Amino acid sequence: MRPILKKVLFYTAEFYLPIHCFTCFLLCFMRKSSLLLNFSEKFFQKDQMINPTLKLLLNRRSAVAANMSEPGPTSEELQLILKAGIRVPDHGKLAPWRIKVLHKSGQQKLGKLFVEIHQKNNPDTNPTELEKEQIRPQRAPVLLVVASFLQTECKIPLSEQRLSGGAVCQNILTAAHSLGYVGQWLTEWPAYDPDVKQALGFGDQEEIIGFLYLGTAKEPPKPRKRANLEDVMELWE
Ligand SMILES: Cc1cc2nc3c(=O)[nH]c(=O)nc-3n(C[C@H](O)[C@H](O)[C@H](O)COP(=O)(O)O)c2cc1C
Is residue 184 lining ligand 1, measured as CB closer than 6 Å? Predict the structure, then answer.
């Protein structure tokens, strides 16, 4: 081999290879430890395990309201959760949803109301049941009552307005989860009771679609069996 070629090969092996290996190692480490995410998120966007939005969606799950405790979202966090909540597809820009926010005092008041209505509807109830009704709206630090505000005098179908409300509920759960809280979307009997609806100040155009409980999980929620994508999806061509 010619001496000049030998020299080139020697320098390559001696200097550039270690530098190259070190750079590769550094990039892998930064990627794994998320250091790279801030400034080259787009570069790795296709990797669902690293894309934080997909990771959140693939891992979010509800916690049982009875297993929630303080702290709940702060008022600033709640503002953000609700802002994200109402940023949903909304055919005709109708904003066909209304939300009531209940902290402890509102929840206690609602608990008393549940007791009264339950007693009225079930005259032979017992103290255990009454206690359960009193506690029902007080299971988490924050309770949101979400209603569809249906506009009948327009061409947008009511079903679409209701679906938009469902998207609001889901966005709220996802936004709360993104801040480290847990949520649960319940309807139970109060969502369909006309006295509850009236007492909460909802009108004839409104329908309660969810009681959303938000707080901190006392223990991590157990995994839940999920539908198989293959069972619900097929290629149509
Ligand atoms: C509109 C609606 C109403 C619901 N109402 C109740 C309910 O009254 N009681 C209940 O145990 N779960 C109810 N759920 C189910 C829970 O919110 C939730 O789906 C379940 O705990 C699993 O949650 P995850 O799939 O988010 O983990 C309801 C769900 C939806 C979408």
Answer: yes
Q: Give 127-169 pLDDT, tens digit per residue.
A: 999 999 999 999 999 999 999 999 999 999 999 999 999 999 9
CA-based nearest residue to 78, from 211, 164, 170, 179 = 179
97 touches 146 (CB < 8 A): yes
> How far apart are the CA of 7 and the centre of ligand 1, in A?
71
Q: What is the pTM of this model?
A: 0.82
What is the SS3 string spanning the chain? CCHHHHHHHHHHHHHHHHHHHHHHHHHHHHHHCCCCHHHHCHHHCCCCCCCHHHHHHHHCCCCCHHHEECCCCCHHHHHHHHHHHCCCCCCCCCCCEEEEEECHHHHHHHHHHHHHHHHHHCCCCCHHHHHHHHHHHHCCCEEEEEEEECCCCCCCCHHHHHHHHHHHHHHHHHHHHHCCCEEEEECCHHHHCHHHHHHCCCCCCEEEEEEEEEEEECCCCCCCCCCCHHHHCCCCC
Mutate which of 59, 139, 170, 185 to test ligand 1's pocket (most atoms within 8 Å of Cβ)?
185
* Residue having the nearest C-alpha atom to atom 17 of ligand 1: 185
